[in-house]
Every structure is written in structure tokens, then in C-alpha cells.
Amino acid sequence: MDIALIILLVFGFFILLSSFFTVKQQTAVVVERFGKFLSIRQSGLHLKIPLIDRIAGRVNLKIQQLDVIIETKTKDNVFVKLKVSVQFMVIKETVYDAFYKLEYPHDQITSYVFDVVRAEVPKLKLDDVFERKDDIAIAVKRELNEAMTTYGYTIINTLVTDIDPDIQVKNAMNRINAADREKTVAEFEAEASRIRIVAKAEAEAESKRLQGQGIANQRREIAKGLVESVDVLNRVGINSQEASALIVVTQHYDTLQAIGADANSNLILLPNSPQAGSDMLNNMIASFSASNQVGELMKKRGEKRTSRREKNIEIPEKPEAPESPETEE
User: Disulfide: which of 70, 94, 301, 325 matches 152 by Cβ 3.0-4.6 Å?
Assistant: First the structure.
């Protein structure tokens, strides 16, 4: 008798303990009585009737994420894989609908994502898919919200987190980008080369211009010096021809002296004998004399031709007037 009482007390104690249950934060518990919906319990300590009431299920009220990978075709016939991340949660006020109306929410969301993505992506080219992925995400969110609200779910956000075309397409895109960048590099290098060439040409032109001005100034000063030297020599009784010859000979010896001052010079002047200076002077004097004689001779011939032409000119006589015929009486 005592043993039966003890067993009964222990059994009653366990039944009493089973009457209490706790609900975690961000969780809702659905309680049924004899298989029929009774109530929804929120977080905290709750009591139910043992053997009559039971916990039918627990509903997570936190934000959940579902990643859906879809393979579809673009407008330019390129197959791509898109990864769409859907963030959703159960509305606290509609736990009943979320628990009883929809058994597999993940499968339902996946089906809607497939339907929307395969309706939107074929309208776009591959480059537009990358540029307008936010538009695809917004379209998915809009369709899911309209469909899942009736089941007690709300869509927080949808993100297109990855776009993965075929490996051959990616290699082709990389080659196109590499070629475009190489083209840009070539254009910049050509422009830099052109700038260097133009700058070098402008520098050479400026150098030649300054060099020409220097040579012109040098020759001008040399000419002035020669004129002054000739004037000085004329004052001491040396005529212009002899003065010019003397200046040339002097420059000749100055040149020889400048060449001899450089120990590493390999220049040889031909002829280069001790009589070269006197021979050159004699030749120059002889050439000046010959040129003067030729000039005088040509001047005389010109005067003779002029006098002959004047003698050969005849003044024409005026013709006599014709006599008028006599008239017969």
C-alpha cells in the first residue's frame, strides 16, 4: 500500500511539472487542446493542462536568411548562376497563419525567387545583369511580399550576392578588358612619345636658331674687324688687295697655331710646307691682278660695242611730197 502511494505521488509530481513550460525570447508557441488550436504563447513561463493541452509547435520570430542559387539565361544567350539571399521573418501578429497555412516556407520562397529571376534576367544582356542587379533584387522582393504576406511572413530584404557566368565567358570578358587596357596604355605611350618628339624638335629648332644668330653675329664682327684692319693698312700705304692677302695669310698662320696647340689633333693641311704661306700670298696677288685685268678688258670691249652701235644708227630722211598731176584744159 505504501509503495503504490509513493508511485502515485511520483506520477502526480511529474504530471504537475509537465503542466509548466517556458517560451524563449523571439519565439512563439502554438498550444492545441485535443488537436484543436487553443492559443499562442509568447516568451515567458506558461501553464497548460496536462494530458489535455499540448505544444503543437514553436515558431521562430527572428530574421532568417535563405540563399537561393538559380541558373538562367540572359538576353544574349549567356548562362549565368545567380545567388539571391532572401531575408524574411514571421509577423508576430500572424503566427497562426505562418504555422497553419504554410508547411514548408523555404520551398515556397525558393519557388517565387526562381519564377521572378527567370522572368527578369532573360530581358537583360550580361553586362546589364551586373549593372542592374539591384533592380532584380527589388523585383524579387516586391513579388515575394505580395505572395508571402498572406501566409504571415514579411520580406525584409533581398540581395543578389553573386553573379557567376560560364568560365569561358569570364575568360573572354577578362581578355576584352585586358585588350582595352592595353589599347589605353598604347594610346598614352604614343601620346608621350609624340610629346617627346615634338619637344625635342622644338628644342633643336631653338638651338639651331640661336646657333645661327651666333654665327651671324660672329661673321658680322669678323667683317667689322676686317674692315677696320683694311682701313688701318690703307692708312700706311697698303692697297686693298695687298691688305686682303695679308689678312688671309695671317688667318692661315693663326689656324696653324690653333691646330698645333692641341697635342691630340690628327688634322693635316695640304700643302703644308714652309713656302706655303708665301706661295698662297703670291697666288692671291696674281689672281687679284688677273681679275683686275679681265675687268678692265671687259670694260673696254663694252665701250667699243657701244660706240659701234651709235655709228650704225642712221637718221631716216623725210619723203618728198608727190607732185599733183596737171589738169588738161
Answer: 94
Give the β-pairing of 79-90 and 153-165. Answer: antiparallel
Q: What is the pLDDT of residue 61?
A: 92
DSSP assignment of 231-242 equals HHHHHTT--HHH
Beta bridge partners of 158: 86
Distance of CA 11 to the CA centre of its chain: 85
Cα atoms in the 13 Å half-sphere on the side-chain side of 247: 18
Burial of residue 197, with CB atoms counted within 10 A of its CB: 0-12 exposed, 13-18 middle, 19 or more buried = exposed
DSSP string, 10-30: HHHHHHHHHTEEEE-TTEEEE
- The C-alpha angle with vertex 164 and arms to 159 and 168, in degrees rounded to 5, equals 165
Choice between 170 and 94, residue whose per-residue pLDDT is larger: 94
Phi-psi region of 157 (alpha: psi -120 to 50; beta: other; left: phi over 0): beta
Nearest to 82 by CA among 18, 16, 136, 40: 136
**What would the grid cell of residue 261 be?**
696647340
Lowest pLDDT segment from 9-13, 248-252, 308-312: 308-312
- 48 exposed, middle or buried (CB, 10 Å; 0-12, 13-18, 19+)? buried
Question: What residues contact 40, with CB distance under 8 A and at least 6 apart?
Answer: 28, 29, 30, 31, 95, 96
- The 3-class secondary structure across 29-62, one letter per residue, is EEEEECCEEEEEECCEEEECCCCCEEEEEEEECC
- 288 pLDDT more than 50: yes
Q: What is the CA radius of gyration of the chain?
A: 60
pLDDT band at 265 (very low <50, low <70, confident <90, very high): low
Q: Mean pLDDT throughout 246-252?
A: 70
Question: What letter would DSSP give residue 52?
Answer: T
105-120 vs 133-148: helix crossing angle, rounded to 10: 140
Report field, pTM of the whole predicted structure over 0.70: no
